[in-house]
Protein: Propionate--CoA ligase
Organism: Dechloromonas hankyongensis
Amino acid sequence: MATYKEFHQYSIEKPNEFWTEQAQLIDWKEPFTQVCDYSRPPFSKWFVGGKTNLCHNAVDRHAAKRPDANALIFVSTETDEEKVYSFAELQREVERMAAIYQSLGVKRGDRVLIYMPMIAQACFAILAATRIGAIHSVVFGGFASGSLATRIDDAKPVLIVSSDAGMRGGKAVPYKHLLDEAIELSENKPAKVLMIDRGLDKGYNKVAGRDVDYATLRAQFMDAKVPCEWMESNEPSYILYTSGTTGKPKGVQRDTGGYAVALASTMKHIYCGGEGETFFSTSDIGWVVGHSYIIYGPLIAGMATIMYEGTPLRPDAGIWWQIVEKYKVNVMFSAPTAARVLKKQDPAYMHKYDLSSLKHIFMAGEPLDQPTHEWFMGELGIPVIDNYWQTETGWPMLAALPGVEKTPIKYGSPSFPVYGYNLQIFREDGSVCGPNEKGIAAVIPPLPPGCLSTVWGQDDRFVSTYFTLFKEPLVYSSYDWAIKDEDGYFTILGRTDDVINVAGHRLGTREIEEAIQAHAAIAEVAVVGVEDKLKGQMPMAFAVVKDASKVATPEMVKALEKEVFGTVDSILGAIARPARVHFVTGLPKTRSGKMLRRSLQALAEGRDPGDLTTIEDPSTLEQIKNALAG
Ligand code: ATP
Ligand code: MG
């Protein structure tokens, strides 16, 4: 199959053959007897009857063949630590952790909640869980006690693994008191808390009988041998909560075999990484990108993976590139938010280093705007590949597939539907849109291997949240608004909640944001629709300027706003012109870097900003309030 189109078509028309071939990329203890069981739509089961284990595929099988090859590279610019673990060393650490779990009473099917910073022990904790068939639920370290408590109550862990503190910008951020408060708040108290003491918060509170010390226990299990538990392919491996951009987070339940196969296939066809190579994802283990492309994906492919604790700007804006040079990174994965941060820095920081090992850099999580995409690709001189997906899917739905065919990149587009996904753009009546017609991106089920099996403990919520867009046809809706051009390239225009209806014209927030971003003075912008008596809705923009001195006086603000209007008029037409452009120094985002448009919109319409448990910096909302009042 020479082209991505043939490859995709084959996956949709002959899914059994296609996925049986992909399934050869992982080890099976027992072969599956059925490729896909779709007898109970919309639930799908993959590789039924097959027995495998994620930890075996990520660690043991490589440790057996290439024990001394690099597996985990931990780099912290917060504590100035660096440590490289070979596959053999990683396996030993994971077995020690697994033995600790067993000594604390964790059994197959039990939940282990992991609330930790980006340290190597977090990786051991994750892999130790899947090793013994326990279900992990990683909660982003940095969520406050309320968010943590809801997740504890939903997942009901028997054990929580945590640490005394994270580090940010060179300062310790104590965790333990947040965890204690969360356990206090929750109705399901875990029997044990395993503490990794980094010595960053001396004298943190220890609860007798419940809290146990990792270093002490590890010393007792130095030679532990804990075999992998063989799991039926559809047994859950983990629960991960969505980012909560649109409201209350959903507990995504992931299977075992389907996920392993899907990730292995993406490492080959999308990320183009294999044995002896190094992967650097700048995400966090608390997000789906961290699960799929810091931990499991690269390791399953036998690559070394970098776990980085630190920011892109400390000690200076060259730190990522220094890591690339030092560890000869071949593939990188990052987010548009981070790219926009780097774009504001001197490119000399990037060019100081030897980046010749780098083949591709992938970006996901939010729309990658055209100017940033073009800038990044221009500076790096390698393909910067946007890929679109969700916590729910676990791996890309839209992406270029350089491992199958090297298709040209179009700035601002995540290219094409990935194999396995029968993804189309639909009109509101359930019919399929033509080229250049805006609609809702949705997938005709069954969902391919590795996508969510259900919402944890709530099968009804799985169906009602994702499969009720139309009566006919049955589709998995991602609630994203999209368009496909005549060459088949997709663009995500924003979430369906974010569509702005101006006097009957439907505009995606993304389109207007792109237009505003085209003005040279603007670093970042968010657009929301605000109720308007005359036109139904009007766009309103909140923009961060690159240089604050450009908006130092009310006259300058007026002048720049006028210029921005002009830019929008010339790109999209006056219909898309925002009612106002408010200049601020920061925008409200989730901890995973997603714009909280629903909160912006609520404030702009004089309503309550809603659930803010996942917001990164609450002070940004104060600025917005002031801007709106002013
Ligand atoms: P919640 O579902 O709880 O509201 P969320 O949708 O932000 O939170 P995630 O799973 O982290 O949770 O994000 C997935 C969403 O992020 C997608 O549905 C889409 O809106 C957006 N997204 C991800 N990647 C891209 C991309 N490459 N281009 C445009 N949008 C993207
Ligand atoms: Mg979502």
User: Anything to note?
Assistant: Residues 458 and 464 are 10 Å apart (CA to CA). The mean pLDDT is 95. The pocket of adenosine-5'-triphosphate (ligand 1) is lined by residues 242-246, 249, 364-367, 386-391, 414, 478, 480, 492, 495, 592, 594 (CB under 6 Å). The chain has 19 helices and 32 strands.
